[in-house]
Design goal:
The chain is an alpha/beta fold. The chain has two domains: about 110 residues, NAD(P)-binding Rossmann-like Domain (Rossmann fold); about 180 residues, 3-Layer(aba) Sandwich (Rossmann fold). The strands form two sheets. Strands 8-7-6-9-10-11-12 form a seven-stranded parallel beta sheet. The longest helix has 18 residues. It is elongated and about 65 Å long. Keywords: NAD, Oxidoreductase.
Amino acid sequence: MSEDGLVLGIHPSVSELFPPSKLREELGDAPVVVEGMDGDADTDGLDGVVTFTYSEAFLDADLQWIHCVLAGVDAFPLDDLERAGIRLTNSSGVHGDAVGDTVLGYLLQFARRLHVYRDNEPERTWRYPDWHETFTLSGETVCVVGLGTLGQGVTSRAQGVGMDVAGVRRTPTPIPSVDDLYTPDALTEAVADARFVVLTVPLSERTRDLVGADELAAMRDDAYLVNVARGGVVDQDALVDALEAGEIAGAALDVFEEEPLPDDSPLWELENVIVTPHAAGATRDYAGRVAALIRENLTRIRDGDSLANQVV
């Protein structure tokens, strides 16, 4: 720690989401010395690191704190960090409105066939939809699996456009924007009557392959799956099989087992699949929201309190 206080490094990987200079600007008057990093090993003199990715060099450094600009920290070795006495925080909670807007966009694309019209533009194809192809969201049911910040960002928007909202969470505590609550052991029952199933759960051993062949078979054949959680939450091979067999109507996927999605993935070729590049939470306000979390934790460090969004 310098005489001026905590020294915080900004890892160049944050440029995946925003320019490092933007975060430095947002932290300009914070009680911290902010330094740019040239690479993984550039940790000399740093007390903390803000990063998009994990590097083994972080364990070898004399760090007190790592802040991940993502909500998901499955790439970080939690046990190793805990043993090293390095606190890890994430950016959970900053994505709710952005992800909620994105999911609503997916639902509207499918309901109004906007993705089909867009695909027709390069060929200058002018085709009015068949009478049964389009529908409105009002009165349709969406089942949101995972009711944290992301999930409630979806449920509030779905309720706002007149949808019936079901939700799945471990504790059946009532939520104003959810009409019917289910626990995870009733997942197949929860998805059975939904036109849309939206996944917003974190990836863990409990949620890995949460949606597989059985869950997809339980969905309606006119239902759509939306995954803005993590790729590992869905058995991707089972999903491709269900889509190609017409067992479900389509899918909007922002996350995948392998990212970027490989060129040879059949998901690229399916008209009833919307592929986005893990960008559901993208917003021009991202750096400012991360900076707000960092500021809060700087205050907590000063006061000797536990950190907001602390994972280990």
